[in-house]
Amino acid sequence: MKQKRLSFLCFLLIFALTVPAACPAAISENVYTKFSRRVLDVFDTEITLIGYTRTEAEYEQIFDETMAMLRRYDRIFDAYHGYDGLHNLYYVNRHAFEAPVEIPEELFDLISWCKAQWDAGLRSTNIAMGAVLSIWHEYREAGLDAPENAKLPPREALEAANGHVDFDNVILDAEKQTVFFSDPQITLDIGAVAKGWAADAAVPYLEEHMPSFLLSLGGNVYAGEPPLDGRASWAVGVQDPHPEAGGTILDIVDVNRLTVVTSGDYWRYYVVDGQRYHHIIDPETLFPSRKMLSVTILCESSVLADFLSTTLFVLSAEDGLRLIESMEGVEAFWVLADGRQQASSGMGLYLRSLKNAGGRP
Ligand code: AMP
Ligand code: MG
Q1: Fewer CB atoms inside 10 Å of the end CB: C or N, the chain?
Q2: Residue 11 pLDDT more than 70?
């Protein structure tokens, strides 16, 4: 419920920054109108699609098509429900230790992409950490249901689970499109990347049918071609992660043809003995990472941004900055636990406070 409220606030930020729906914009002889819809439907979050089309019917059809696509991904990536005849994540986690399971291309490609990052040495975001993450999930859900009894998971249980998080024990066969767990206790949790992967899947369709758009899946935003109302770019709010800020905007990024993804400690958390325990777990400590309040990534690939926002949330500010500066076409903005801010060298092109100041913070 808390998460829903925060997501709604995020929607309001985007919405507020993009002027009311249905305002006509004359582009040569064509008149485009801005339409916007928000639904609480898939991925346990608000989906917002803003776009410019000539008619409302055209927008509605594109919206429905986009939702159908996202709904399919949501089912395939669902870790909590099975669906008849669908070898989704729920099915994989229950059966892939028995024998190789043939899975839909969408899921196979996502797991393979994550494994490639693991093989390249980027291991702070480890989707094979399901054994540890599911313990936190269970304690968080129980703590949210009955806050007066909220408890931390026992360290021994986390450590025992941590013996079953080696991604090398997830065996992929590209020819047969199968996944097999050679460790029977390993499970996958793709929460760190699923929304980014799904957003990337919807983008080519939107680019073709409604190029001027902004798609938001919770904290994952993708901005297409510029808005057709004369503004040079889309304005996306970066939420102030400090609890006392009450979800207000800290800064704004001006973007086109780019994704903006934020990982923050305010999305999902519970409280034990007055302290907040959020949902991003440091594989080293097996506890919520305490280095950052939020990390925002800008780049062209939403899944990469999603993966990196979680990764940088766990890494130190120095290691994260080094990583981002070594990558082409990726920028980042950190709000550290002590409230300091850090930005990568190219962020000055996008972040309003830096543009106004003409440099780094
Ligand atoms: P995000 O909000 O994109 O940073 O993703 C957070 C989600 O990713 C959590 O709700 C967990 O499902 C999962 N997660 C948390 N910590 C990790 C981690 N270190 N590696 C992989 N997945 C994680
Ligand atoms: Mg992420």
Answers
A1: N
A2: no
